[in-house]
Write a structure and sequence with these properties.
- The protein is of the alpha/beta class and about 525 residues long.
- The chain contains 17 helices and 13 strands.
- It has 2 domains: about 230 residues; about 230 residues, Nitrilase/N-carbamoyl-D-aminoacid amidohydrolase (4-Layer Sandwich).
- Strands 1, 2, 3, 4, 5, 6 and 13 form a 7-stranded mixed sheet that branches. It has a 6-stranded mixed sheet with strand order 7-8-9-10-11-12, with helices on one face.
- Strand 2, helix 11 and strand 3 form a beta-alpha-beta unit.
- Helix 4 runs antiparallel to helix 5.
Length: about 525
Amino acid sequence: MNRLPLILLSLISGVLLMLAWPPLPTAFILFVALVPLFIIRERLSNQKRQHLKFWAFTYLALFIFNTGTTWWVWNASPSGSIMMLFLNSLIMSLPFLMFSHTRQVLPKLAFPAFVFYYLATEYWHFNWSASWPWLTFGKGLSTMPWFIQWYEFTGEMGGTALIVSINVLIASIVIQQRYKRLIMPAGILLGFGALSYLIAFIDQSKFTSDKRDRINCVVSQPNIDPYEEKFGDGMNYLYPEIQLDYALEPAEPFIDDETDLLLLPETAVTGYNDESDLNNNFLFEPLRKLSDSTQLCVITGAESFMVHKEKERPTLTARYDSAINKWFDFYNTAVNVRKGKVAELYHKSKLVPGVEKMPFEFLEQLSINLGGTSGSLGTSDRAINFTLNNGYKVAPLICYESVFGDYACEYVRDGANVLAVVTNDGWWGNTPGYKQHLLFGSVRCIETRRDMVRSANTGISASIDRYGKISNATKYKERTAFACSVNPYSDLTFYVRYGNLIGKLSLISIGLLIFVIVKRFKKTSNNGQQTETI
């Protein structure tokens, strides 16, 4: 490998990352996929513009990775996908640039520093305004739930830490040509596999003899094309009441007196639905009738809006209607209908940047001031659980929200016994996108030790148990429904109790990076010449 051209090493790394990513069952490739990049850095040592060259090769590999795994975003937003591919590749390349400078200033600390640099960047990418954490390395192990049962302690960033650490260890061994030491990373991985089985065994033995209550669910998949049938005004557009019929028709044969929950997908109820009058809205009448005088609750996605009474702009996302001289907000909403009425609402809060929200506040202000109709959707100010008639609480995660482990934990800390995901997943077509989204749900179940029910507008609707095992998976482009039972749990995992400790701990790398920058600056000043930087 040391004799291969640098460009070929970069291409190999990018292709390995791509081949390791879900839904392909080849996740173990992730543990070696970054090694070629570290070999590139070693071979560039003492060359002019070494940092810039290393960053360019790294960026190429990560761009291949991003393009090969999330190209399907193009189907929903061509311009957004281009921005996402270039920007996310850039963000992922930053820790490598930090490593390159650290390697020059503090060579013995560079490899462990890289682990912290990468974790800190991932943690930041979860929490900034333009967050796109679809390709965090920990999610790459979602095809192997049997291997990641320890996520209940670490969250998915534990997976990232393991992947990056193993890559660093192997790279160090290869660079030093001490190949006999490769038994070390192999032993570590075997140890984590054994630990995972032990954790699952202990957890299962705790609940095997427990006669638990069950929540009886019916999950609907209406299979409505989001481009031609659900939205827009083309020839194939389906009126909102017809769309709701499409969702209810396959589900009704499965509903009986024992059914506790009917789950319908994201925006199953479309149109302009005024939140101040939902109980008189004819679109909700079939749902109100289903839940009247029964134990059945209906959780559904809906489009809704609220007209504000305030004269001044009440929220950053509010838009002004000059015809009525009022401010209003649009929402992507989850609704809980029980005992014949709309009982609870939740507004999606983790919005897709560039699609459901403007990523920065000044852009939001700009879109309003220019008089356009674009702008962000409104959000709830916290995670809100829905209560079933039997008293159990359900977390209504809407689509993209199921990608965020920390956010799912907020529901569970607030008492959620079960996770429910309502999503569309039809925007991307028959591509890896909806399959990846489903697999990420397994990660959430392991982290929180909660069962999940998942209703997608079209493929894949499913149920997932607390160990990440997927059941009742439907096919793509199929109008169908199924009945299932899930266990309500109230125990809290270490990760739920204490949050993302790995992400927070990684922030110590900021101090190390500042030290490296200062030392490089002093070295430049002492030498009296300009050291190459970027």
